[in-house]
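User: My instructor asked us to take a sequence, write out its structure as tokens, and then describe one feature of it. I'm not sure where to start. Here is the sequence I was given:
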Amino acid sequence: MNLHIHFSLTDQPISLSALAGDLHDPAAGAEVTFDGRVRNHNDGHRVERLEYQAYPALALKVGRRILEEEAEKHGILRAIAVHRTGPLEIGESAVWVGVASAHRGAAFDAARAIMERLKYELPVWKKETYADGRSEWVGPDNNSAETGRPCNEAPEWKAELLEIWISPGNDFRGHHGGPRGDHGIVRVDEVECVAGMGLTGDRYFGYKPDFKGQVTFFDAAAVEAVRKQFNRPDLSSGEFRRNLIVSGVDLSAWVGKRFRFQGVEFEGSEECRPCYWMDEVVAPGVEEFLKSHFRGGLRARISGDGTLRIS
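Assistant: Let's start with the prediction itself. The structure tokens for your sequence are:
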């Protein structure tokens, strides 16, 4: 028996007809194929698109090993599989498996086993982008590639919320070359979070779709560092115009990751970039000082409704 095994990765659309042709074997009485396509939903969320990333050298080795092991186990003649990488649209083929065997039972069993093993063992990560703007990197076994947790579970922050600040308008943004705005900022004891919108009453509430800075987190340790470094012991944390002053969490570790805080779900988007206004409203040199050690804070999207309260 001449066993034919082939596993590959491609960033181009999968040619189903060409692959099916490669399965033909005069000794085969059965050919079974599986075409896995991008669907428009997952776990109750509407999916807009997918992106796959692979560790190519390892993925090719693992993929071929899976095909070889299942071919030997089920006594099949041919086993071919292809996995896509890169961005894919709804309806595109993401993975294709084909098996040829002398008998249908072995072909069905081998095709199913190969597909299941590719899903759970192949070092390929999938980024799902949802209609509400959220995205999630999913690794083998349907775990988040960022947190290692199941994708429907966002880890809870064990942190304290010390202060909440909201402002009806921008004092810095859009004021380049002119005077600072005069909208002020208000400290409150609780605030309503609205998914995809922001904090009720804040200047960035409903600012624009999928806005990265629907809410900003600022480490209380950064406030204290500025007070000490620039001899401003009475400096209000409201001067930084960040929303949520927290302690007990490393903000730099949450860029691109989902998390829950006081039961509200967020997704970290990027570091807050300090601007030259910090030098004017606090002290010269503060802008550069905040650019190091992630002192600028964390911008985040709000993924679930709820209310935050001072700890």
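For the description part of your assignment, you could build on this observation: The two ends are 70 Å apart (CA to CA). Try explaining in your own words what that tells you about the chain.
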